[in-house]
Amino acid sequence: MFLCGRRAVMRILLTGFEPFGADTSNASEQTLKLLPRSLGEHQILTGILPVSFGRSARVLDELISGNAPEAVVLLGEAGGRTQINLERFAVNQMSARIADNDGAQPAGERIEPDGPIRREATMAVPSELMVSEDAGRFVCNRIAYHAYGLPIPAQFIHVPAVRPHRQRALIGAETDAGAPVSSELSVVQLAASLTKYLQDICFHHGPRR
Question: CA 58 to CA 46: how far, in whole Å?
Fold first, then answer.
């Protein structure tokens, strides 16, 4: 059993993405299903975001409005990663190798016409997880850019695009050139590492300074 520190009870919103492209599975959604719904007295609230440039931010805002969390952790999959990566930055640009699930395929447009070039994650939590400084330009980057501008601490995390029965993911180049690659990690291992990260949030919750 994972117990959090003796702090005020927290509500952490944890999101994943639906499948997209030619894949019928998304490792972020599958990992989400294995994560705990509480850590001691702290609540883990969950939701699934659409792989949509146009709708994902609106759905996230609705989840935040309906759940009033103190922190937000967003999961997405990256077919070019072999380890879990905390995404430090998100950039104000959308570019898609393939169309999103609504058929949109932007080619370099800005997410917010008057927004900053990039935003930094606002969750300041010591962690052993690897840090990435490039979240790509697909919907993962789009939602991270939005989340990093919200008034509550937020962290986007890329997990490897692992598949059931060691199947190979069909996506990946949305984030990394040369993808997809194979990861030796399983969804169970991803869930165990992310449970530890959620535990760390309970101890060290606070905005990045």
Answer: 16
Give the closest residue to 18 by CA, choosing from 88, 75, 69, 61: 75
Q: Could you count the other beta carbons within 10 Å of the beta carbon of residue 184? A: 10
Annotated catalytic, 184?
A: no
* Percent of the chain whose pLDDT exceeds 90: 68
For the stretch 113-142, pLDDT in tens is 999 999 999 998 888 999 999 999 999 999
- Among the listed residues 158, 174, 202, 205, the single catalytic one is 158
H-run or E-run covering 75: strand 71-78
| CA 116 to chain centroid | 21
Is 140 one of the annotated active-site residues of the chain? yes
The yes-or-no answer on residue 112 being catalytic is no
- Which amino acid is it at 71? A
- Residue pair 75/44 in contact (Cβ under 8 Å)? The answer is no
Q: Note the pLDDT of residue 17.
A: 97
pLDDT digits (tens, 9 = 90+) for 91-107: 999 999 889 999 999 99
- Which one of 4, 29, 42, 140 is the catalytic residue? 140
All residues at 6 or more sequence positions from 61 whose CB lies less than 8 Å from its CB, including other chains? none
